[in-house]
Sequence to fold (196 residues):
Amino acid sequence: MGVAIRTAGEGDREAVVRLLDEAFQHDPVSSWVFPGEAYRRATHHRLMAAFTDIVLGEGRVDLTEDGTACALWLSLPADAHDEEDGPARLREAVDPDNDRVELIGRLTSGIHPSGRAHEYLWMIAVAPGHQGEGLGTALMQPVLDRCDRAGLPAYLEASSARSRKLYERLGFVSTTPALDLPDGPRMWPMWREPRS
Fold:
């Protein structure tokens, strides 16, 4: 049986934020950005809300009908570039005293490929009780199929070894050296060429 997926709208914002917050509470990168469980529980949701707002405004959020998984996508043109002060503004809005909120934005912007239009999977989240059920693949496959038909590549940064394996199964390959966060975990920039 297939997974019912729809495009999320503004009315789904809070559900998407809750899902992202719950799914990434123990993610290595989120744990680095917000060290300490109590601090992360109190603050992490604000970063997930900021990401959700950006993607609802500029991209697309795909959501399973039952609300157990979502994917945040941006379609980036070949000449896309990040606002230089974007990471600083994000830090100010989310957690002004936490320089890691800004640093993660600057580091990932620095490794993001340019020069070719592509689909960017900003984040994908599956509720902890539903991980391993194929929901991530179900969310990604329609977009990857569209990429293949349109001749568009796709890009993402894997934040864990487990997610990296999923992305490799879907045709993504590591592109540049891994990004080692200062005194923190590793992230893997991954690129997928369209399949004919």
Q: What stands out?
A: The mean pLDDT is 94. The radius of gyration is 16 Å.
